[in-house]
Amino acid sequence: MSESDKIRVMIVDDVIDTRDQLEKLLFFEKDIEVVAKASNGREAIALARQHRPQVILMDINMPDMDGIAATEAILTNDPGIQVIIMSVQGETDYIRRAMLAGAREFLIKPISADDLYRSIRHVARLAMTRPIAPVGAPGGQVPGAQPTVDGQIFAVFSPKGGVGVSSIAANLAVAIRQQTNKKVALVDGNVIFGDLSVLLNLRTDKTILDVASRIEGLDRDLLNDVMATHPTQVKVLLAPPDPQRGELVSADHIRAILEAIRQEFDYVIVDTPASFQDRSLAALDLAQRVITLMTLEMHCIRNVKLFLEVADLLGYPNDKVMLVLNKATNRTGIRAEDVEKHLQRKLALQIGDAAQEMTLSINQGTPFVLAKPNHQVAKDIMNLARELVAKASKEAVAKESSKQRSGLFSNLIPRR
């Protein structure tokens, strides 16, 4: 490997032993080269200009100028440098400050060799991504970029927890992929207590936080690097591994990420948390369909009625909110017809009850539609997928026809 192919790293730490230890850890890595070492933030700024490292390992607490201030100054001068913040503190405030300053990753001391190598190589790969137009820019792409996809967002939601939102979201994504063979993304929007990694048996250390922390550089390469690939070829954006890091993902991050993903995928399924907080509403607002799950329990029915009132206040069209009865059974003493009468809304579909079988598939990390494809519940989920895809296709045709009619009409208008 030539010198120019190596990842150029600078180490910044006020403790000389730490600097030397990190340098020794990196010495035998053939694709990594330590080009400079600094003892404080001000020295780091000067050395960054001189040596132009690709990656900086930056301690957060240093005298004279700390790592946060140094990171901000360095990235102002050269936004292409990737900074990994190091700290003995793992509190949310430290991580938030690091990410706001522009750091790519946050490592807690003492740092293992594997974590160190992984982080350096990870952020170096991200540095090579080519940015597309910022989310929300006209056209959503730059000249010469691949055409974007006007994907459909389906948010799976319930105003009450424990009704099976995550399970249905995961199975729905797999079902749509099987039926359409198109590009399908699954997003764990429950950034505080997301568990899609367990449901799908996916093991990766990359999560939605990796995207949120560098939202200004969001592009298809970053998404492809962070999103995990399920054996069915559904791409999955997982939630952070703990609530503290999940708190760093804001509603604005959710909006920007979903807008970017829908430009790359035909269908985007969002597992949405059971709340009316801003993160949930960010996903619900963008969704073409809100699959609202409910069960035949009085407190769940009451919460759904409240949500329908909120949806009306938010101006959601009636056909945007799709009521789906999950774990449907006749053993609760409440009939589906009575629920429809109480809510004054029709149920779009019912998914049967398979508590034991569904639990087994979750424990095995295999989606139910794959584990038990002939089970009635699997067929119910496939029917839900089929109906969603059919509605989306019908609306796409209507939209295209409207565009053509509008274009024809404009040609008939005489120019002045």
How would you summarize the topology of this molecule?
Layout: E1 7-12, H1 16-27, E2 32-38, H2 41-51, E3 55-59, H3 67-77, E4 82-87, H4 92-101, E5 105-108, H5 113-127, E6 152-157, H6 165-180, E7 184-188, H7 196-199, H8 208-212, H9 220-226, E8 228-229, E9 235-237, H10 243-246, H11 251-262, E10 267-271, H12 278-286, E11 289-294, H13 298-313, E12 321-328, H14 336-343, E13 349-352, H15 355-364, H16 368-371, H17 376-412
Parallel strand pairs: 1-2, 1-3, 3-4, 4-5, 6-10, 6-11, 7-9, 7-10, 11-12, 12-13
Antiparallel strand pairs: 8-9
Helix pairs in contact: 2-3, 6-17, 11-12
Architecture overview:
By secondary structure, the chain is of the alpha/beta class. It folds into two domains: 3-127, 3-Layer(aba) Sandwich (Rossmann fold); 152-402, Rossmann fold (3-Layer(aba) Sandwich), CATH 3.40.50. It has 17 helices and 13 strands. The protein has helices spanning 16-27, 41-51, 67-77, 92-101, 113-127, 165-180, 196-199, 208-212, 220-226, 243-246, 251-262, 278-286, 298-313, 336-343, 355-364, 368-371, 376-412; strands spanning 7-12, 32-38, 55-59, 82-87, 105-108, 152-157, 184-188, 228-229, 235-237, 267-271, 289-294, 321-328, 349-352. An eight-stranded mixed beta sheet has the order 8-9-7-10-6-11-12-13, sandwiched between helices. Strands 2-1-3-4-5 form a five-stranded parallel beta sheet, sandwiched between helices. The longest helix has 37 residues, at 376-412. The protein is elongated. The N and C termini lie far apart (66 Å). Mean pLDDT is 86; it is low at 129-147.
